[in-house]
Amino acid sequence: MSPIIQSQAPETPNKTSRDSESAGLRREHLLVAVVILFTSLSFFFIQYDKSRTLEPEYDQLVAAFHAGTLFAPVQYRIGIPFLASFLQKHTPLELRQSFPLIEAVSYAATLWLLYRMFGSSAWIKRSRGPHRAAFLAFFLATTQLPILWIFPWERPETLPTALYLAAIVVLVAGRSRIPFPLLCLLTVALSLGQALMRADVPVVVGAAILLSAALAIPLPRPRSSIAILGLLASATGAAVQLYLQRVAYPNARYDATTSKFQLLNNLRLDPPMHLPEFLIALLPFFASLFLLHRYRLRLESQDKLVLLICLLYLPAWVTVGLIVEVRIFVPFLFLASPTMARLWTAFLLGEESSNRPDFAASSG
What we know:
By secondary structure, the chain is mostly helical. It has one domain (30-355). It is 68% helix and 0% strand.
């Protein structure tokens, strides 16, 4: 008898390499998930501990929002108070629990979407070993830089706004297979929810998306489709703001001591001086722009859209908001964290534009 013995073919180097990369990616996902879980739970318990005795204050605040007795523009930011009130009525949660919970869930979802933005980069996909580890380390570091600036002049809409920014960039700049009509519907829904918290954000985001189409930034969809998405975001934000001002709360007025334009207050040099807080908080962002210009580092399409959004909102904030209230710009610092991480790592590794492949056409 001569049985036929079929020997198993040895694994090819390519298959072994792919298996190793897949295992490494799973470990990376697990590590990032643990970091997100730890940071978001820590944030929740810190916030919850601060609000243990504040249930009467939360009740008064929500009642004032429903009655429309607050000063503008705070009166128009009804999204989170109304959501917390809904949870109070239909779940066992009290207001002192639902406010921190909404913030913590938004924080966790924002970090995960930012990690998706980070991982979709052509730079990251081509990085191996220590290079990818350096990218990941800088990314996790940059996502932690803005969080301390949430607490002064704290507002519950800060982290949900960061979630909106991350979600809209993933939808517009990501290579998703979502049908365009559904993408339009999601853009309107997200912008509607955001406009109930801060209507200026979807207006500026939509303008940045429109500008990206005008500048022919190579995003995954046709320029006309990108322009439509930008128009939908801006129009939704403007329409909601007009409704809140003219229909829902026509009697809301600005405090007599509060100016609608804060530019002159922001530029004052006599005490109290607000520039130190502004410069310290935005130092990582400004340093990234310096590295980008000084070392001619290349940007991917997603990075260009992110920087457009941040750079358009920055003058709007300086003009109508107090720069000492850095938490207003915190959502944009979160949004820029994957871009900052890539720029910092490229600088660290000496990867100037003349020494690297051109990934500018990549959408991220």
